[in-house]
Amino acid sequence: MTESQTTAKPIPAERQESHVPGEPGLWIFLFGDMVVFAAFFALIAHYRSTEPSTFTTSQSQLNLTLGALNTVLLLSGSLLVVLGLEKTRSGSTQAVRYYIAAAGSGIGFIGVKCLEYHEVISHGFSPMTNNFFMVYFVFTGIHLAHTAIATAVLGALAFTSRRAARGPNVPLLEGGSCFWHLVDLLWIGLFSLLYLA
């Protein structure tokens, strides 16, 4: 045991509460991603305002049940990520179960989204059909890529959280968790605009 390990003092509770999760550089990426998706949302709103009947008719072709199922999957994943991070912070090696389960919700989302794409395409719709389906395929496709990356990140977090007894890299776990929450938040925006509005 080194001298720095024997003299380390616990962080006071008030400092722990005010701490920003993850690495500072990560927040530049997260805010940048949010700005890009805000532009996407504005574009969807613009098309909706200029082509209301096209959007209403096209929206009725989407499977609301599959969209809602995907929302539940991502929200469940967010809850599991929070629980996994709390387990890690408490020094428990059981956090890995929560991260694996959260990654499973990501895999479930990807599977349901592929099923939904198949259903929409089999009914004869494509990005070339109209502006609604163009934004639907492009923006949900970009989100799907985010989800695939976030799911892989959760797999890496599961591996990292297994080292809790040896002192896990908590900022890394926090950063990965924040990325997953961003993916969840972006989906809620897309679900609201494309399926519900």
Order of helices and strands: HHHHHHHH
* Mean pLDDT over the full residue set: 85
Sheet with most strands? none
Cα separation of the termini: 60 Å
Instruction: Report Rg.
Output: 20 Å
Structural class: mainly alpha
The general outline is elongated
Number of strands: 0
Give the uncertain stretches in residue-range form.
3-15
Strand-residue fraction?
under 5%
Number of helices, counting only DSSP H or I runs of 4 residues or more = 8
Short description:
By secondary structure, the protein is an all-alpha fold.
Explain what you see:
With 197 residues, the protein is an all-alpha fold. It contains eight helices and no strands. The longest helix has 31 residues, at 131-161. Residues 3-15 have low confidence and may be disordered.
Supply the key terms.
197 residues, mainly alpha, disordered N terminus
Layout: helices, strands, pairs:
Blueprint: H1 3-7, H2 13-17, H3 24-50, H4 52-59, H5 64-89, H6 95-122, H7 131-161, H8 170-196
Helix pairs in contact: 3-4, 3-7, 3-8, 5-6, 5-8, 6-7, 7-8
